[in-house]
Predict the 3D structure of the following.
Amino acid sequence: MTEITIRLHPKLAEGLLANEAKGAQIIASLSHQAAKVMQRYGRHITYAPLVLQKGAGCAMSVRGGARGAIIEIDAPDTLIVGRGVVIDRQYKSRGNMR
């Protein structure tokens, strides 16, 4: 069975957990977005944009192997405007570089 671990940057987690119900909704939304990106591009993502709220955003990355994947969600405002998903060059062979 594949295991997926989602790690939130401490600054992001602290802000969302302090916001209780609304923060939980945002965490669910981030998890959903991250899972969709991983399903589409695979387990070797160097950078991918995620939307937080009110136009804010952050970056995520994915690394993993045969047993599972670790999704790292970075601090708020780590979004690079105009940048799409970047696949780890080592795993570019599937033709997913964008």
Remarks:
- Residues 20-41 form the longest helix (22 residues).
- Strands lie at 3-8, 45-51, 57-64, 68-76, 86-87.
- The mean pLDDT is 87.
- The chain is about 30% helix and 35% strand.
